[in-house]
Specification:
The chain is mainly beta. Helices cover 0% and strands 62% of the residues. It is built from no helices and 11 strands. The strands form 2 sheets. Strands 2, 4, 5, 6, 9, 10 and 11 form a 7-stranded mixed sheet that branches. It has a 4-stranded antiparallel sheet with strand order 1-3-8-7, with no helix packed on it. Strand 4 and strand 5 form a beta hairpin.
Length: 121
């Protein structure tokens, strides 16, 4: 099985920074996609940033120039560096990954448990 464990959320003032981490573990042959999503109560989960295996990163317009997604293949970990945070960035952040299973070769997607990010004004 595969698990995604997130860390790094918290409370920060507007203009501050946080770095989120999402570590994948288990029966992993390869990671095809990793992305960060966020959700606020009453709204749909939205894609914030994503990175495809050996590909380029993509960002939502609302975070371009402020957030950076990066990956460490050796650690099966993806990071989201968030700078110049704004109150509207407040949400629960989830990582999502599409992983090819080492034993079966099948690609499945997985979600992390979510981490709260709160930006005060």
């Amino acid at each position: 099985q595969v698990q995604l464990v997130e860390s790094g959320g918290g409370l920060v003032q507007a203009g501050g920074s946080l770095r989120l981490s999402c570590a994948a573990s288990g029966s992993i042959f390869s990671i095809e996609f990793m992305g960060w999503y966020r959700q606020v109560p009453g709204k749909s989960r939205e894609l914030v940033a994503s990175i495809i295996n050996r590909g380029s990163a993509n960002y939502a317009d609302s975070v371009k120039g402020r957030f950076t997604i990066s990956g460490d293949n050796a650690k099966n970990t993806v990071y989201l560096q968030m700078n110049n945070l704004k109150p509207e960035d407040t949400a629960v952040y989830y990582c999502r990954s599409e992983i090819r299973n080492w034993n079966t070769g099948v690609i499945r997607f997985y979600w992390g448990q979510g981490t709260q990010v709160t930006v005060s004004s």
